[in-house]
Amino acid sequence: MINRTQVTINIAAVIPSGAVLDADKKGLASLTAKALQFGTKSYTKAQIEEQMDFIGASYNTYAGKELAGLSAKFAAKHQDKVLPIINELLTAPSFNEEEFSKEKQRILTQLERAKESPRSVIGNYWDNFMYGNHPYGNPVSGSVSSVQNLAVTDVKGFYSKNYGPNGAAIAIVGDFKAKEMKAKISKLFGKWTNPVSATAVASTIESPKEARVLLVNKGDARETTMLIGGKGVSRNNPDFVAIEVVNTVLGGRFTSWLNDELRVNSGLTYGANSRFSTLKNSGTFYISTFTATATTKATVDKALEVLKKLQEKGLDEATLQSAKNYVKGQFPPDYETPAQLASLLTDMFWYNFNEDFINTFESKVDGLTVEKSKDIIQKYFSANNLQFLFVGNAAEIKNVVSTYGKVTEKQIKEDSF
């Protein structure tokens, strides 16, 4: 994609090599993605850093739930210096063992510290709670015990098995001549022939059949951190835009119903929100907030009251119009920089939607009526069989939270999620 108003170039690359492929070696995808930066066949880690720093270029490699990726930004005039480095980071990493050991130790330190902050780990507990043994339940960073057992040979094996051109995509946005850039990229990446087969992730994920509670005990906690929700939607759901508008009212902005009731009107928390966390084949919906231990029940009941209000009363015209205006106003800033556009292009590739998302966004927002919003609410914002996750002092809140569903208790000091 060409953007003549920019003198920079942004690259976003995605490879279907995320945590869903970790199997019994949790954290391996993430560590492999990070290890791409530890040197290549032509450059040491130090040489890459020195050359990129000298010209003001930035780069990063990472892994998420489904994908591994690379992002980079550099001046257009430096493209012939940067592109060969980017190519080798993806296609010819050397996986230096000394650098691997350093990074592994950093990750272990981070994992050990993470459980001191419930908000840092509650997402991992939620995914495991919602997805169970499905690969979507895999924690991206792994756990202390799983990472402790990883060796550089594991990283090399994961790369060899899962990194290749099949199923991968590279998006480039900035100041360049399209024909010339295509020729350069084709020449560089045309030699990337690692014969991998993209592993399909099963799409059948059952909705909860009953209300359940996961209580994660943190004995020294003075507050309760919570998620309340259930099954959500995949990213390419045809109702994605309508869901976003409705969720804006419930918990998607500072003036949302949840934040008004839980923060402004009752003072139970400093913040409350709701969101749909989407993946390629599934997703979850949840209300997120925290409160003092003593006000756990009051906070949960208030959140449920707001959700019930949404279901029973729906949205009036003024509220719906306010949400529409907000969503339309927030949309352009999300896709105005080259980095954002490059990321959007790889999202379009992975989640299987096209430029109609951009071209029809406003019309879809404007087309949502009060009547249609009622259908969206009933279909996607159900309060049936809600799932509750609490991280807090179990001795003080177990009797309270057990009123919301069947309780499973875990200890935050335990290694797993």
Automatic annotation (TrEMBL):
Any one GO MF annotation of this record: metal ion binding
Signal peptide annotation: none
InterPro entries from the UniProt entry: Metalloenz_LuxS/M16, MPP/UQCRC_Complex, Pept_M16_N, Peptidase_M16_C
Gene3D superfamilies in alphabetical order: Metalloenzyme, LuxS/M16 peptidase-like (3.30.830.10)
One Pfam family it belongs to: Peptidase_M16_C
Species the sequence originates in: Pedobacter aquae
Entry protein name: Insulinase family protein
High-level lineage: Bacteria, Pseudomonadati, Bacteroidota, Sphingobacteriia, Sphingobacteriales
Residue intervals of the Peptidase M16 N-terminal domain: 5-141
Peptidase M16 C-terminal domain segment(s): 152-325
